[in-house]
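Work Package 4 report. The design task specified in the project plan requires that, given a folded chain encoded as structure tokens, an amino acid be chosen for each position. We show below one input record used in the internal validation round.
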């Protein structure tokens, strides 16, 4: 029965010591992880919303390819159609629109004059989407030759209209008697071929079947910008290109001469709050989709950090400087993102958990030893009194106190792993007891008697 009582006492004591050692460490670890979690990046959303004008710059075809690529990595791309690049940028810049990314034409804004919308950044240029000016009548070498004509400049909010108005206003041919008509792409092409308008402005890739078909229509000319270099100096988001003679149709020699074109770029824009992991995934998609050669594009030329009228995002800067992040090169998207998010958790593990893992056992050992070590004060007190030449009565009292200390220590609950501390104390009790016994018997103390040395 007494043994069971001692075992129960031992368990209670060990639990108390363990809690005293572990509880503060647990609280510190929890606090460290809580602070770290505050800085852990949230998981990227599984759905993205893209704004685009389906009839502008081949954006609808691009969007379908992005949908397929993102779906392979567990991300759904939802499309929201607009009337043009201006409308797409305006929707992207609106806080409550729900739009995350957009295709747009370089040089367009969100409808606030020439101001670049806040919180919108570029992930890069994707392709050249040239400005095509088709017209009827005598040859002209620049848009200034369209003074007084009926010109289809594209619908409101379209990137085509924004660029057309920039060039027409620069040449002061945007006012009467010039007539500007807000026709969409197909209506403008039909009106030109039927002779209802004198000229049309179109922004589209050189691979567009509509452009190549229109270039072959009899009595329809394609304007060659003789001052293209001057335009690119004034408007950095434009670039000069030469469409080679016969590139559309060698047999029919379409076009029948080299044509100098002005070209904005197709842009991939994003809110500056877009999750970094998704930004890198989108740029990986851009590299795969837009990396091949075209009539005007060279292999590997796109995506590129070209001047676009929008600031380049920080992720885009790193991507174009160093490429795909290391984790995304070798791990699936979800795994790379998980490792990247949890990487910061190494901070509390290294800074807190490892040191505390060493400290907790030391604290527990100190708790166990402290219950024994405090009785060494009784032994030391008796040893000091022995040096004062006590009488027999004092020696008997000292022996009685020594035996009492030994009994009390024997009742201390000590784990088996730390029992050596208890036996060290007993050895030291025997040392003091032998000195007392010899003194009581009147025998001289042996030279091997020595002061107590506590165990380490």
């Amino acid at each position: 029965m007494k043994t069971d009582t001692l075992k129960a006492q031992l368990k209670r004591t060990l639990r108390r010591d363990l809690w005293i050692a572990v509880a503060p460490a647990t609280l510190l670890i929890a606090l460290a992880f809580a602070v770290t979690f505050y800085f852990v990046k949230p998981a990227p959303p599984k759905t993205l919303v893209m704004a685009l004008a389906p009839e502008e710059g081949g954006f609808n075809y691009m969007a379908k390819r992005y949908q397929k690529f993102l779906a392979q990595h567990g991300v759904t791309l939802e499309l929201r159609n607009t009337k043009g690049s201006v409308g797409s940028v305006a929707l992207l810049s609106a806080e409550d629109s729900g739009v995350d990314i957009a295709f747009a034409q370089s040089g367009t804004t969100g409808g606030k004059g020439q101001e670049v919308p806040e919180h919108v950044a570029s992930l890069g240029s994707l392709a050249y989407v040239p400005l095509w000016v088709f017209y009827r009548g005598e040859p002209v070498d620049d848009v200034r030759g369209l003074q007084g004509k009926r010109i289809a400049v594209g619908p409101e909010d379209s990137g085509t209209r924004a660029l057309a108005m920039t060039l027409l206003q620069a040449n002061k041919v945007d006012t009467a008697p010039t007539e500007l008509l807000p026709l969409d792409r197909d209506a403008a092409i039909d009106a030109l071929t039927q002779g209802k308008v004198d000229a049309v402005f179109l922004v589209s890739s050189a691979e567009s079947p509509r452009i190549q078909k229109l270039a072959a229509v009899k009595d329809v000319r394609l304007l060659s910008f003789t001052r293209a270099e001057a335009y690119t100096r004034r408007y950095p988001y434009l670039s000069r290109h030469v469409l080679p003679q016969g590139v559309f149709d060698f047999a029919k020699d379409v076009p029948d001469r080299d044509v100098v074109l002005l070209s904005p770029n197709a842009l991939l824009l994003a809110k500056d709050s877009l999750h970094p992991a998704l930004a890198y995934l989108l740029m990986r998609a851009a590299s795969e989709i837009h990396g091949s050669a075209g009539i005007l594009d060279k292999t590997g030329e796109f995506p590129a950090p070209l001047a676009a009228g929008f600031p380049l995002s920080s992720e885009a800067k790193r991507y174009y400087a160093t490429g795909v992040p290391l984790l995304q090169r070798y791990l699936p998207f979800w795994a790379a993102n998980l490792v990247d998010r949890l990487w910061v958790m190494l901070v509390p593990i290294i800074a807190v958990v490892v040191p505390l893992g060493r400290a907790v056992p030391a604290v527990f050992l100190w708790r166990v030893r402290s219950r024994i070590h405090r009785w060494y004060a009784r032994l030391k007190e008796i040893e000091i009194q022995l040096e004062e030449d006590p009488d027999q009565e004092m020696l008997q009292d000292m022996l009685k106190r020594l035996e009492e200390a030994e009994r009390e220590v024997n009742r201390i609950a000590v784990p088996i792993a730390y029992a050596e501390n208890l036996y060290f104390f007993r050895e030291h009790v025997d040392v003091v007891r032998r000195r007392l016994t010899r003194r009581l018997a009147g025998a001289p103390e042996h030279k091997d008697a020595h002061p107590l040395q506590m165990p380490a």
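The CA atoms of residues 25 and 105 lie 57 Å apart. Validation will be extended to a larger panel in the next phase.
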